[in-house]
Write a structure and sequence with these properties.
Number of domains: 1
Number of strands: 0
Distance between the termini: 8 Å
CATH architecture: Orthogonal Bundle
Order of helices and strands: HHH
């Protein structure tokens, strides 16, 4: 299992590679969806990024947009 701090750093790099400097102020509790950081396409990309980090598929019943609305919540999907 990846430590949360490592996950947050990798997730920030993921977002930085897609949205540039707008990712710099991201914290573990930044709202990713309601703030407009993630659009529908980026939600899908982030989902596949999470599966890659997890090393296995994320089941449909585990996933919702709310489950990845912050980095802290997204980490819970990767850590299980």
């Amino acid at each position: 299992m990846i430590p949360e701090a490592d996950f947050v750093n990798q997730a920030r790099e993921f977002f930085r590679s897609r949205i540039g400097d707008a990712a710099d102020p991201l914290t573990e509790d930044s709202e990713l969806v309601s703030s407009g950081i993630m659009d529908s396409l980026l939600v899908l990309e982030f989902f596949f990024f999470l599966e890659q980090l997890r090393g296995s598929a994320i089941e449909a019943q585990e996933f919702s947009v709310a489950s990845i609305s912050t980095l802290r919540k997204a980490y819970r999907l990767v850590a299980t």
